[in-house]
Amino acid sequence: MRSMVAELPFGNSAGVTAGHSGPSAARLTVLSGPSGVGKGSVVAEIRRHHPSVWLSVSVTTRKPRPGETDGVEYHFVSEEEFSRMVAENKFLEHAEFAGNHYGTPRQPVEDQLAAGLPALLEIELQGARQVRETMPEAQFVFLAPPTWEELVRRLVGRGTETEEERERRLETAREELAAESEFDVTVENTEVHLAAEQLVALMKGS
Ligand code: 5GP
Asked: Which helix (H) or strand (E) covers residue 148, if one does?
């Protein structure tokens, strides 16, 4: 695991074309990690306490969960609409996860970065790998559970998925945990507010 090295502050005006360790490395931050590790909670914490952090709103074919609002957590679309967006190259990355499709709309992220402003993506592993291919200068942050047992407890405890969905998510989580070494930095999600603060500090380069 690499250490939490300092990157550049929010105000830097460099673009996103430099090499991985170049001056623009902090522009785009990609948060990934296994399902159930609490990426959504960390992002919700950032929304509450750091409203100035710009978060990409993904498009998904998954149905909204109770409490989710279209346009806030996700843009909820049909399979047809999602396929159309793929065909029109509207996504920076997209992936299938547990039977649903997810994608990051390209234009808003590009606009944000073109303005010299930092952006945060919260996506699963396949998507993070795609972003590494096209934007290797981004900062890739792995959110890790304190232990595997804790991750299983969180996945099962959420209780919003069917048994079959949960099994698929656990299998995917096993594969995702093994990918930690592909990331620049690991943040352990022992407490949500601490993980959120660490992530914001990484975006700021402190
Ligand atoms: P959930 O259905 O629990 O909200 O999300 C399932 C998984 O999809 C999570 O690991 C989440 O990080 C990931 N995800 C959310 N949005 C995107 C996206 O735009 N692209 C990709 N590749 N994964 C996403």
From this structure: helix 148-158
Domains in the chain and their CATH numbers? Answer: 2-56+117-204 (3.40.50.300)
How high is the pLDDT of residue 206?
Answer: 64
Instruction: Say if residues 56 and 121 touch (Cβ distance below 8 Å).
Output: yes
State the distance from the centre of ligand 1 to the C-alpha of 33, rounded, in angstroms: 10
pLDDT at 156 over 90: no
How many whole angstroms from 102 Cα to the centroid of ligand 1? 6
Whole-number Å distance between alpha carbons of 190 and 100:
28
CA atoms within 13 A on the CB side of 56: 29
Per-residue pLDDT, averaged over 133-160, amounts to 87
Question: What pLDDT, in 10s, does the model give residues 113-139?
Answer: 999 999 999 999 999 999 999 999 999
Is residue 206 classed as helix, strand or coil in its secondary structure? coil
Q: How many helices and strands in the chain, by DSSP H and E?
A: 7, 8
Q: How far, in Å, from the CA of 141 to the mean position of ligand 1?
A: 15
Nearest-CA residue for ligand 1 atom 4 is: 40
Q: Name the helix (H) or strand (E) containing 102.
A: strand 100-105
